[in-house]
Amino acid sequence: MHWFTQLFMLFVLLGTALRAWLNQRQVVAVCRHRDRVPEAFAARIDLESHRKAADYTVARARLARWLNLIDTVILLLLTLGGGIAIMDRVWSLTDWSPLWRGAAVILSIVLLTSLLELPFSIYRTFGIESRFGFNRITPRLFIADLLKGLLLGMALGLPLLFVVLLLMERAGSAWWLLTWLVFSGFSIFMQWLWPVAIAPLFNKFTPLTDESLKQRLEALLQRCGFTSQGVFVMDGSLRSTHGNAYFTGFGRSKRIVFFDTLIHPTEPAATPPLQPAEVEAVLAHELGHFKLHHIRSGLVVSLVSSFLGLALLGQLASWPAFYQALGVAQPSNHAALLLFMLALPVFTFFTTPLGAWWSRRHEFQADEFAASVAHAGDLAAALVKLNRDNGSTLTPDPLHSAFYDSHPPTPIRVARLQRLAAARA
Fold first, then answer.
1. I want to staple 262 with a disulfide (CB 3.0 to 4.6 A). Which of 119, 209, 243, 367 is the partner?
2. Which residue, among 219, 245, 242, has the nearest Cα to 233 in the 3D structure?
3. Tell me, what's the pLDDT at 272?
4. According to the model, what pLDDT value does residue 267 have?
5. CA 120 to CA 319: how far, in whole Å?
6. Is 334 in contact with 106 (CB distance < 8 Å)?
7. β partners of residue 247
8. Measured between alpha carbons, how far is 366 from 358 in angstroms, rounded to an integer?
9. Quick one: residue 293, left, alpha or beta (phi over 0 = left, psi -120 to 50 = alpha)?
10. How many angstroms separate the CA atoms of 146 and 144, rounded?
């Protein structure tokens, strides 16, 4: 057995075991605190909501446990099990050119893995989300989203794939650098295109119509020196009762988006989840990401990472043992791409805490910015409501959180905001 095969197997087994261990820690931590609301939140979150969040978290963790095993099995079948090699032989029966055959092999593998994961997506949506009262998507809309996502992926992804395969075939040893330039331009273009052309294919975005709230938010935008297409409300309630807000785009396409579940009642008799001052504080947090250049720095990190990754692939693609060690006897450009996309996450998973730490650091910084232009207490109150309405646990396992949570746990964020509010009082 080749040493790279042994190394690959070692990292696969270690990664699978680590995911399972972190998953079990999360379940144990949440179940241990299920019947008692943390003292700091006892006045704002009732025991029933706390238990619901615990049960919801455990249900999702148990599904993730199965997904972890299934993903490992699929990975091994496609690589060491010869799945890619078999698919390659099937398409070699055609008289297509290497470029078209390679694109067909990659597309077939992508569609196959998506099909295998579809039952879990269905269960997550119509099983777990429905059981806990969060799901609102209909089977018809679910299918429509799948079809639109598939068509959109082909419309955008296939041309990019053809360009990459063409560069690998004809650009010599510098193909990876040219590919990086193409990928970089594509990424920047997508940052602009997504909010104005792609997101509206799935959701409806309407300008904020509440005049008093609109004036309040526009005053905040003016204080922060922020200009954009405006503040939009997205019909998130069409698919889920979960609430969120985000900043997207750059240049003239940048916009602030609120889910309608943050502003409007989810039921006719319900109280709006957030009060105007709390909505303003959430907007201030999102503006913090812009003012502190988090979107830009994220794009830079993505481009640097892709540069290093493609440089590595440029070396591996010319190493015959790379293919043989991962179950492909005949080297090819499309096999190099597939094997790299499958193998790289096996090794980079162990760096996940670094990315999560960096993201949480940005969230803390955005919170501090919000506290400087709005009120820290209002943002803390908004976070508690979002935590309750989204079914997020207040008692995650610290190690699990360090690996997987892009946002700091609510108790930590609220405690920091309370200290900021006290310091400014």
1. 243
2. 245
3. 56
4. 53
5. 36
6. yes
7. 256
8. 13
9. left
10. 5
Count CA atoms closer than 13 A to 135's CA, side-chain side: 18
- Enter the tokens of residue 51: 């238990």
Q: Which two tokens stand for residue 128?
A: 């777990």
88 given a catalytic annotation: no
Is residue 278 part of the annotated active site? The answer reads no
Query: Which pLDDT score, from 0 to 100, does residue 266 have?
Result: 55
Phi, psi (degrees; rounded to nearest 5) at 206? -125, 145
Is the confidence at residue 251, as pLDDT, over 80?
no
Out of 71, 129, 286, 397, the active site residue is: 286
C-alpha to C-alpha distance for 345 and 349, rounded to whole angstroms: 6
**DSSP 8-state secondary structure symbol assigned to residue 202:** T
Q: Among 114-123, 138-147, 226-235, which is the least confidently predicted range?
A: 226-235
Question: For residue 62, what are the contacts with CB-CB under 8 A and spacing of at least 6?
Answer: 27
- Confidence (pLDDT) at 54: 96
Tell me how crowded residue 310 is: count the other CB atoms within 10 A of its CB: 20
CA distance 416 to 409: 11
Decide which of 225 and 91 is more confident. Answer: 91
Indicate the pTM of the whole model: 0.91
Q: Report the alpha-carbon distance of residue 33 to residue 392 in Å, rounded.
A: 13
Which one is predicted more confidently, 54 or 299?
A: 54
Annotated catalytic residue: which of 71, 88, 129, 367?
367
